[in-house]
Design goal:
The complex is a heterodimer.
Chain A lengths: L2 E4 L2 E4 L9 H8 L18 E5 L12 E4 L12 E3 L1 H4 L7 H8 L9 H14 L3 H5 L3 H7 L11 H16 L10 H10 L11 E3 L4 H11 L11 E4 L7 H4 L7 E4 L9 E4 L2 E5 L4 H10 L4 H8 L4 H6 L2 H6 L7 H7 L3 E6 L4 E5 H4 E3 L2 E2 L5 E8 L8 E6 L10 E10 L2 E10 L6 E2 L1 H7 L6 H14 L10 H21 L12
Parallel strand pairs in A: 1-5, 6-8, 7-8
Antiparallel strand pairs in A: 1-2, 3-4, 3-5, 9-10, 10-15, 11-12, 11-15, 13-14, 16-17, 17-18, 18-19
Helix pairs in contact in A: 3-7, 11-12, 17-18, 18-19
Chain B lengths: L19 H6 L15 E6 L6 E7 L1 H4 L4 E6 L23 E2 L7 E5 L2 H8 L3 E6 L6 H6 L3 E10 L7 E9 L11 E6 L5 E5 L4 H12 L6 E5 L14 H14 L3 E4 L2 H7 L6 E9 L5 E13 L5 H10 L9 E10 L13 H19 L3 H7 L19 H12 L2 H14 L3 E14 L8 E8 L5 E5 L8 H13 L6 E3 L2 E2 L14 H28 L7 E3 L2 E4 L2 E4 H10 L5 E7 L4 E3 L4 E3 L3 E14 L5 E10 L7 H19 L31 E6 L24 H13 L13 H11 L2
Parallel strand pairs in B: 1-12, 10-11, 14-15, 18-19, 28-29
Antiparallel strand pairs in B: 1-5, 2-4, 2-6, 3-5, 7-15, 8-13, 9-10, 9-12, 11-20, 13-14, 16-27, 17-18, 17-24, 21-22, 22-23, 25-26, 27-28
Chain lengths: ~500, ~750
């Protein structure tokens, strides 16, 4: 049992299982069939809804997010304000986005349309100000809908509707959440949220602090359980973990949700570096790096990371913990020499270099009762000394065929510090220390770059799969390294796809 | 706020889609949104991942006892037999004894929830004696395995030529990726029959096949389809297994049954656009003018015939695109492979046939050092050279003018020069520009399908209900028909309601396919309007004493000389005068005929034309690329609705662009599809929409008497995207010294490989 606010009304979830998805709840329990299932895997956006998470520990309301309800646990949105297309506008009272979608002829079959409406509305709600909204460009509109697939229109009229409706809303903002359940936030978060929701053996837990988290883990997950548990699980953004539920139809017995653990939610800059809580989302990091730290490589990578819906839910810790060889964060973090803080069910913490974290395909040093608490980037990083390139079949919302990140400092005309990392070329994300050694202490000239590229080509032995052949992975990885080193050598960028939204 | 509800729209006006308000508010119902009876059960199917073999044993005991399972069936439980082939036998609802592709359903489960059904099907213990599967066209050709007989059409005399060019091209298929997956809902009726809600382009086929598997007469099966969440050909024959399976369970259990395929199952179990492995020998003079074309089209049909006969035939019909071959020899082979049976997809084989000749055109130009556009123009069907390889004479020479107009409006020559300059100075990025034509034949090549019926009902308050056998998949058919009917009676569009397509309202309907929807159903609807108008005129003359002059229906009124009544008033009086206010309309396309064996006749009532110029830029180091600008000129005749036609053109171009660039259908060596979900099969996103996208209509009425002299628009513009593939190939050439081979689809990897070849 739990409560949430749905289209401005407080509703009781009734009994539910930890593996119940928000989409199923909306369609089957609540009869809100405007939200569609297109893929069940978070790739098409037809199930997009908007969620206003509860206030954080400081009483601040985070910005509302659009997310894929098909891969979001119902448990994850307890105590939140959830808005579906039905709550945005009705046939006799259309929201400006809906009105513009009609007048711009932006729907054909109409099945994807509610999802587009939600992403466009979310973009408006997330805009910093009316002035900023009014100034949005076609590129902003593309980014807003980059997690929504339409097979009929070719997108041109949807982009037109975005820009038309932005102007309307910039002049006349539309209130969609009031009356909110803000009183729910304060009363329920501390009482209901960390309780069992169904029964002792069937529960969705929402610990709100580290101590409560470790206690829950201690009760349900044993340190010596070497099998990756599929019935008692730690969940963060669920953008990957939930595929077990929707694609492999796994049942969950106990879920422990990490996303409201206050200690995992902070970003701190201190003398010893930048420490990012594991449950900080990619969207939050995109804004943080965009606003606070000028690091074009991280910002450009994050702009192509999944889709807005994925970035709004997915966390940096999750991207590392699932140990995928094709995750987007690890090459960046390896090149930046990141360390991880791991904590176990007894509350004991240890620090591990990310380069020591991966053991083999989908295997890490993480014990069954252990979780990633935070990621630390060293204080001495020069943010412009990082260059990253991602190669994928489709530019938006695709998984890397290969992705490379190079951190390189030069002093007195020679390479003084260098780290080279790739994803998508081996069973785990990897650093290429031999290449780093080759480059160190030498002037970054054409001959050296060619030697480094040759060496990389020789050392790679990637696989062929649906995304790319081994030969292309090798060649493209070499091209990525060459590009990066050329850019360090000349200062000129020469790519078509990076910064596609710029 | 709602600007769209209270306006009257006529043909030629940009009326919004009739369901637009429902779309944007989520209130438009698709099959999965229909409230279901309380005891509805849900279906999932079980299979093995072995591509070919004999089924030795199928132990379903654990499936039967799994939580939530209500019923389990195999092929022998289907009363009327498992075959559901739409035209030829061979497509099966459930396999028995022989397994013909990886993932083929062997049994089905009905359970209290979809999740329970999906969990249960995993519990089967399946033993198979695996045999060596035929997984590609070459293997099938070597083994001489075909789903249907091959055909060769030859015309004209072969003469000697200065130039001979041979080549081959492998063209991969395409997953439909309609956003709404396949779905059907069966509800038993008290007379032994059923109602089927089906997301289908062909309710009549569903009716026929459900009746067949249940051993019922067709009148016991009522099929209704209000709208589909996209179809693109993928719901012409492929909707049938869902409806049939739901119907079998509904008949057994006397409960409502929903069968909705999750995306993964849909991508494994439903057919796609055919891969084609094709070869050609072209002979031409030193100016690039053809004397002979010998083209062999080998289609990967999958395990069964499905609609492959017509699809390969349409590929053959379009192997010349808009060009003249004095001598031609065109062969179509329908290869049988142990893969899912491929099916209709927007263009129906036409795109694959057309791509071969367009690829060859660039090679001819390369050989002779002529601009590719000039080679294309020199070979157009033209007076004195106007017979197609299948014997149809073309008498309207649209393409020459259309190409000239686009060449000029898009500054083709100037931009070619500018690109050459750019390519000389740009080290890492190269650009390419190509302008290609489309000539697409309009009519079903299966002659009997060129018929349509409509049912028109005028109610005594003046409101009108129009129904026909055409289905709505987003293409705006119902919006256009509504405009046609509203215009016929001179009333506002909202006076006319377009109800769901229902097999018990209009029988024996053809599929909504072959771009024929508005052509045929529009004419049928017009015929019905004419009948009612004649009855009203007769009533007005005999009962109201109006003159013999024709009635004028306009602006909600009916005039005849000095007499004038509102439409509603006239209808009211006609009702009181006991005039029948409902009627059917019927249309069959005139003049068409074709002899398949000889390859001769007039299969097409007319052609739809178009051309596109696409400019691309590539990164020669990685093969990544971007489409920078697209200019399109499309011949839609007198547009029935410019907004809808524009949407069809833009949408088709981007869909075609996906087919030719990022959408890569792949299978592993065991015959299992590896591009089995949207995470690894990439359709275009908004970023792939060309930043500069100029679309114009070629202003010319259809010379044939079609509805309001319009032209079909659904499929033809898909092939405009061939210009993007040709442009990418030109950009690859600019990275080296010759025109390289470029794979289809031209993924970044394929472009990278082409750049390497161009430099060798």
């Amino acid at each position: 049992m739990g409560r949430l606010t749905l289209n401005r009304q407080i509703v009781d979830t009734g009994a539910f299982a930890p593996h119940d998805s928000l989409l199923g709840f909306l369609r089957d329990a609540r009869g809100l069939t405007g939200t569609k299932e297109g893929c069940g895997s978070g790739d098409c956006g037809a199930c997009t809804v908007i969620v206003q998470p509860p206030a954080d520990a400081n009483g601040q309301l985070p910005p509302p997010i659009n997310l894929n309800s098909c891969i979001t646990p119902l448990g994850a949105v307890l105590d939140c304000d959830v808005l579906t297309v039905e709550g945005v506008g009705q046939p006799d009272q259309l929201h400006p986005v809906q009105d513009a979608m009609i007048t711009e002829h932006a729907s054909q079959c109409g099945f994807c349309t509610p999802g587009f409406v939600m992403s466009l509305v979310a973009n408006q709600l997330r805009s910093a100000s009316s002035e900023a909204l009014a100034k949005q460009t076609r590129s902003d509109a593309i980014e807003a809908i980059s997690g929504n697939l339409c097979r009929c229109t070719g997108y041109r009229p949807i982009l037109a509707a975005a820009l038309v409706s932005n102007q309307v809303v910039a002049t006349n903002p539309v209130e969609l959440f009031k009356p909110t359940a803000t009183e729910l936030d304060s009363t329920l978060l501390n009482t209901v949220a960390s309780q069992n929701l169904v029964s002792e053996e069937h529960a969705y837990h929402h610990p709100t602090n580290l101590q409560s988290l470790t206690e829950h883990i201690g009760r349900t997950i044993k340190a010596d359980d070497n099998s990756l548990s599929t019935t008692n699980v730690l969940l963060a953004g669920t953008t990957d973990a939930w595929l077990n539920v929707t694609q492999r139809y796994a049942d969950l017995t106990t879920a422990i949700d990490l996303t409201r653990v206050v200690e995992l939610r902070s970003i701190e800059r201190a003398d010893d570096g930048l420490t990012i809580g594991a449950a900080v989302t990619h969207s939050e990091l995109l804004h943080f790096f965009d606003d606070t730290i000028e690091c074009p490589a991280i910002v450009a990578t994050l702009q192509r990371f999944g889709s807005p819906q994925i970035r709004n839910r997915g966390t940096i810790g999750g991207n590392i913990a699932n140990a995928s060889p094709i995750a987007d964060w690890p090459p960046l973090l390896l090149a930046l020499n990141a360390t991880l803080q791991l904590v176990n069910s007894k509350g004991i913490a240890r620090t591990v270099a990310l380069s020591d974290y991966y053991l083999a395909y989908r295997q890490t040093v993480l014990a069954a009762d252990e979780f990633i608490a935070s990621v630390t980037l060293p204080a001495e990083i020069l943010w412009h000394a990082l260059i990253a390139h991602k190669i994928s079949k489709r530019i938006e919302d695709d998984i890397s065929s290969t992705m490379g990140a190079v951190y390189l400092e030069q002093q007195d005309g020679v390479v003084s510090l260098c780290r080279v990392a790739f994803g998508g070329v081996a069973a785990t994300p990897v650093r290429f220390e031999a290449i780093e050694v080759m480059l160190m202490g030498k002037p970054l000239n054409k001959a050296l770059i060619a030697d480094a590229c040759d060496a990389l080509g020789r050392s790679l032995n990637p696989i062929s799969d649906v995304r790319a052949s081994a030969d292309y992975r090798r060649a493209a990885s070499v091209a990525v390294l060459r590009k990066a080193l050329d850019e360090f050598a000349t200062g000129n960028q020469q790519t078509l796809t990076q910064g596609a939204h710029a | 706020m709602n600007k769209s509800s209270d306006q009257s729209y006529r043909p030629r006006e940009a009326a919004p889609h009739e369901s637009a308000t429902g779309h944007v508010t989520g209130t438009a119902h698709y099959v999965d949104d229909i409230p279901v009876p309380a005891n509805t059960v849900h279906v999932a199917t079980g299979s093995t991942n072995i591509a070919a073999g004999k089924l030795l044993s199928l132990d379903l005991s654990a499936v039967r006892t799994a939580a939530g399972v209500v019923d389990v069936i195999t092929a022998k439980d289907i009363p009327g037999g498992t075959d559901i082939g739409p035209v030829f036998p061979g497509d099966v609802l459930l396999a028995h004894e022989t397994i013909e592709y990886a993932g083929q359903p062997l049994f089905a489960v009905a359970a209290t929830s979809l999740r329970a059904a999906q969990q249960a099907v995993k519990l089967a213990v399946i033993e198979v004696d695996a045999t060596t599967p035929l997984l590609d066209v070459d293997a099938a050709l070597a083994a001489k395995q075909f789903v249907l007989p091959s055909r060769t059409w030859e015309r004209g005399e072969k003469t000697t030529a200065a130039q001979v060019l041979t080549g081959k091209l492998y063209v991969r298929g395409q997953e439909h990726f309609y956003l709404e997956g396949q779905v059907a809902l069966a509800i038993p009726e008290d007379n032994g029959g059923l109602v089927l809600h089906s997301s289908t382009q062909h309710p009549d086929d569903i009716q026929k096949l459900v009746a067949r598997v249940l051993g019922l007469a067709m009148h016991h099966v009522r099929v209704t389809s209000r709208r589909m969440g996209g179809a693109f050909g993928g719901k012409e024959s492929q909707a049938a297994p869902l409806a049939c399976m739901a119907a079998v369970f509904a008949a057994r259990l006397q409960r409502s049954v929903k069968y909705r395929m999750p995306r993964h199952d849909d991508m494994v179990q439903t057919g796609k656009r055919h891969d084609f492995s094709s070869s050609y020998q072209l002979e031409f003079d030193d100016n690039g003018v053809f004397s002979s074309a010998d083209i062999t089209l080998n289609a990967k049909c999958g395990y069964s015939p499905d609609l492959s006969d017509g699809i390969v035939e349409r590929a053959m019909f379009h192997a010349n695109n808009g060009y003249h071959f004095p001598h031609s020899r065109i062969t179509g082979n329908r290869c049988k492979t142990n893969t899912v049976s491929n099916t209709a997809f927007r263009g129906f084989g036409g795109p694959q046939g057309m791509l071969i000749i367009e690829a060859a055109m660039d090679e001819v130009a390369e050989r002779l050092g002529i601009d590719p556009l000039d080679v294309r123009k020199r070979n157009l069907l033209r007076p004195g050279a106007n017979t197609t390889p299948y014997g149809q004479e073309v008498n309207h020479y649209v393409l020459a003018d259309l190409l000239d107009e686009l060449e000029s409006s898009c500054d083709y020559r100037e931009r070619k020069e500018a690109i050459e300059t750019y390519n000389k100075s740009s080290h890492w990025n190269k650009k390419g520009l190509a302008l290609t034509p489309v000539q697409f034949g309009i009519s079903f090549t299966a002659k009997h399908l060129n018929q349509a019926g409509a049912l028109l009902q005028v109610y005594r308050d003046g409101s009108i209900d129009i129904n026909h056998a055409g289905t709505e998949m987003g293409q705006g058919l119902h919006t256009k028909i509504r405009q046609i009917v509203a215009n016929a009676f001179g009333v506002a569009a909202q006076t006319v309601l377009h109800s769901a397509t229902q097999s018990d309202k209009v029988p024996n309907g053809s599929p909504t396919a072959a771009s024929s929807g508005s052509d045929m159903n529009g004419m049928a609807a017009l015929a019905a309007c004419d009948t009612i108008k004649e009855r009203l005129a007769e009533f007005a003359r005999s009962q109201l004493g109006w003159s013999d002059q024709p009635l004028i229906f306009a602006e909600g009124n009916v005039r005849c000389g000095d007499n004038n009544l509102s439409f509603n008033e006239l209808v009211q009086q006609a009702y009181m005068g006991r005039v029948s206010l409902s009627t059917t309309g019927f249309y069959s396309t005139p003049d068409i005929h074709f002899d398949k064996e000889k390859g001769h006749g007039m299969p097409f009532y007319y052609f739809a034309y178009g051309a596109a110029a696409t400019e691309v830029i590539i990164d020669i180091n990685t093969g990544e690329y971007r489409v920078e600008r697209v200019d399109i000129l499309q011949d839609v005749g007198n547009s029935l609705n410019p907004a809808i036609d524009l949407g069809q053109i833009e949408g088709a171009y981007v869909q075609g662009l996906g087919w030719l660039t990022t959408e890569e259908l792949l299978w592993n060596d065991a015959g299992q599809i590896t591009s089995n979900g949207p995470a690894n099969y990439k359709i275009p996103t908004a970023l792939d929409c060309p930043a500069e996208f100029n679309v114009n209509f070629f202003k010319q009425a259809n010379p044939q008497p079609t509805v309001h002299r319009s032209k079909a628009v659904g499929e033809p513009p898909l092939m405009l995207a061939i210009s993007a593939w040709c442009a990418l190939r030109q950009a690859c050439k600019a990275a080296g010294n010759h025109l390289p081979a470029l794979a289809v689809p031209a993924t970044p990897e394929a472009v990278f490989n082409a750049v390497q070849e161009a430099r060798r």
